[in-house]
Amino acid sequence: MISGPVPVEPNANNCAALARLHAQCFADRWSAKEFGELLSGPGTFAVACGGPPPNGFVVVRGAADECEILTLAVDPACRRRGLARALVIEALRLASTAGARKAYLEVAESNMPAISLYAALGFEILGTRQNYYQKRDSTPEHALVFGVGLPLPAMGKSAGIGYTDQQEGRS
Ligand SMILES: CC(C)(COP(=O)(O)OP(=O)(O)OC[C@H]1O[C@@H](n2cnc3c(N)ncnc32)[C@H](O)[C@@H]1OP(=O)(O)O)[C@@H](O)C(=O)NCCC(=O)NCCS
């Protein structure tokens, strides 16, 4: 019973639910099988909330002292209620407990809801990846690379974006 935010057991039902929710939120679909394979990988886990089926989830992959947010999705009917904030905070708390000291992610440069969310959580822009995404109309779009030290800074901090075009800085 998901209420959460709680870690998700990567069984067939849960992977199918994550795939359905992901398809509601992104143009590029990830199948249930892909979620199953992803969540079987070393250091990779999902945290979800709501439902069942879940209203939102985040997938994080940890390696050594770093982790990466691979995807984050909230049901369009449940947005602006703090679900994404709660999911990211809990997932990064778990990653930090497992030894991660930095978190990274990529986000499309036009995705203002996600950019606002990550900036509010203390992430800062480290650089860009040119033509990293493809929009629904097939035109390319740059990705912004965000990073933050873990544990997350205190909530309520309004982080400076400090974005410089052409910077490439994941270190
Ligand atoms: C981005 C997304 C995950 C945000 O989910 P959410 O549950 O609505 O976000 P929250 O309610 O937790 O918002 C937390 C903060 O993020 C920012 N934010 C979220 N949505 C925003 C929007 N539409 N416009 C401006 N700021 C926004 C705000 O600072 C917000 O705090 P506030 O509500 O107190 O102002 C959701 O819009 C989504 O699933 N989008 C499609 C998938 C996607 O883009 N995923 C991220 C890819 S990296």
Helix content range: 25-40%
Judging by the overall fold, what is the CATH architecture of the largest domain?
Answer: 3-Layer(aba) Sandwich
DSSP strand content: 25-35%
Quaternary structure state of the chains depicted: single chain
Q: Biggest β-sheet: count, sense, barrel?
A: 7 strands, mixed
Question: What's the average pLDDT?
Answer: 89
Structural class: alpha+beta
Distance between the termini: 39 Å
Q: Class of the largest domain, according to the CATH hierarchy?
A: Alpha Beta
Radius of gyration: 15 Å
**Helix count, per DSSP?**
4
Q: Uncertain runs with pLDDT below 50, 5 residues or more?
A: 156-171
Our count of domains comes out at 2
CATH topology of the largest domain: Aminopeptidase
Quick one: CATH superfamily of the largest domain? Answer: Gcn5-related N-acetyltransferase (GNAT)
Instruction: Record the strand order, biggest sheet.
Output: 1-2-3-4-5-7-6
Order of H and E elements: EHHEEEHEHEE
Coarse shape: globular
What descriptors fit this protein?
171 residues; Aminopeptidase; seven-stranded mixed beta sheet; globular; binds coenzyme A
Structure characterization notes:
The protein is α+β, with helices and mostly antiparallel strands. The protein has two domains: 1-100, Gcn5-related N-acetyltransferase (GNAT) (Aminopeptidase), CATH 3.40.630.30; 102-171, Gcn5-related N-acetyltransferase (GNAT) (Aminopeptidase, 3-Layer(aba) Sandwich), CATH 3.40.630. The chain has four helices and seven strands; from the N terminus they run βααβββαβαββ. Helix 1 packs across helix 2. The protein is globular. It starts with 5 loop residues before the first strand and ends in a 22-residue tail after the last strand. The structure holds coenzyme A. Coenzyme A binds at residues 25, 72-74, 79-85, 105, 107, 111-114, 116-117, 120.
